[in-house]
């Protein structure tokens, strides 16, 4: 049986707002596909042919290879496109299945468009789904009874992605997953709902093997989750052990992390020598996700002096240790008001941020924010492609939806107005997700 995996397209910031192409003097970071498809593909029983297409780069409207089973993995912003692809496939009598965050959070909606929906992590149920598909007896729902046993998994089948690269898309880095789950309950994060509240670590050798597989194809990796610095037993130790291993072998094996995602409170609570260990491992950037934690919410919402001081200290620590702070500013939280935009811009100039990105708070299905907005009847838009951190889809608490949308765009415009010199900078130093 031939299984065709599809990573559905979704609108990025500049696709929702084309004016950003003129406002931002940087290269656009499109990013590689998530590891979901590669992880599930690695669990496919022997004897089946696997294929992969990235619909963002090669739209399946133009060319859809023949297959016996079509499998789509997607999150909320890609749901609009995924449902349309599924409807087309089913109209042609082709079996199609869905997995990923959105199907797990909105299974009833997806069941109307797909022959089968995977709820939760895919690895525990994927082999059975493939066997059922081959026998022509797909069940409507495949739900994992428990989280995947990470110690029993092999490395993700990253060659699916790497072999699909061409002159149109050849990303420099790919995500590296070191753990799953999160004990926090951030307002707009779905991770605890879809992967559990307990951090589960991948075996250290599996993480290392995945890193080497990418390095063998001249690819760097990025740690996008902010769990590396969490005060959870074993988590920081594992991360520091990985950093040391990278430092020892990065020239020999070309292993490298392009950036590490984290948050200001976590970064302020690690030993200062960790900053040096990060730099020695060749990591040049921290991706500081804001808007979820008490520091950035307090600093840029009501403008609390103590929180502003902590945010400034965090950025200075990064700069002093030679690791660039790339801050992602989030607007639209419950305490954000008309002054939030100016507070963000003033802070960015005061600490000398070189690059930054700006996002609109978004109530993704399955998050606490989603539940609250629904309960308070504050959702104003359920067009899923608009749930991409670039569009206001709810009524804010302290300003109008129109003002929040305008303020989001003004942040991009005003921040980069004084940074036109980035047009002449090396691509590795001025690549921004927008």
Characterize this entry briefly:
This protein has 434 residues and is of the alpha/beta class. The protein has helices spanning 13-16, 20-23, 36-41, 79-91, 101-105, 107-111, 126-134, 159-163, 191-195, 204-216, 235-253, 264-267, 273-280, 294-300, 305-320, 340-351, 368-375, 401-417, and strands at 2-7, 27-28, 49-54, 69-73, 96-99, 116-119, 141-143, 173-175, 179-180, 200-201, 220-223, 257-262, 285-289, 324-331, 356-360, 431-432.
CATH topology of the largest domain: pyruvate-formate lyase- activating enzyme
**What would you call the structural class?**
alpha/beta
Distance between the termini: 39 Å
Helix percentage: 25-40%
Could you tell me the mean pLDDT?
94
User: Uncertain runs with pLDDT below 50, 5 residues or more?
Assistant: none
Distinct helical segment count: 18
